Amino acid sequence: MSVASTRSSAIPWIFVACFSVVFAVNGTMIWLAVSSFSGLYGNGARDREYHYNQVIAEQRERDALGWKINTSWRVDDNRLQIDITQADGSALPGATINAQLVRPAEKQQPVPLALVEVTDGRFSGHVDLPKRGNWDLDLLVVAKGHDFAITKRLFLK
User: Which spans are transmembrane here (predicted)?
Assistant: First the structure.
């Protein structure tokens, strides 16, 4: 058996081996992509899709309230402050809030916030962050018989 015939008979097996490596890597990458992040921010995305006109109407109702949410983060003492104002710029009296911080790119439990009302429409509290960086503030404000839900992206240093 000559060297040329041995080399030519091994070439198809080299192709098979190379493609097997490519398929194994692709299969691993597909498995990691499917098993790691669902792509859904929260539960009920499908229900929101089916009732989209209702979602739009609720958003227009919230927009008509004219409430504004302003946040500030104090790095020195890890304090988050939330100011809620009405359409005329005055503080929103009698509001209660439910707030939590969610990492937008990671699957982990939300960080609940214990914020106290300092004055009308101003809430403040200390936050122990497990990590610094981008967070979504999920906020539900209840006042004057209305529920006002908003998500704000914050970069907390």
Answer: 12-34
pTM for this predicted structure: 0.64
DSSP letter (8 states) at residue 116: E
Phi, psi of 51 (to 5 degrees): -115, 40
- Please say if the pLDDT value at position 59 is more than 90: no
φ/ψ (deg, to 5) at 11: -60, -45
SS3 86: coil
List C-alpha distances in Å: 114 to 36, 81, 92, 111, 150: 30, 11, 19, 10, 17
Tens-place pLDDT, residues 3-20: 566 667 888 889 999 999
Count CB neighbours of 123 within 10 A.
22
Of 151, 123, 150, 154, the C-alpha closest to 67 is 150
Question: One-letter amino acid identity for 39?
Answer: G
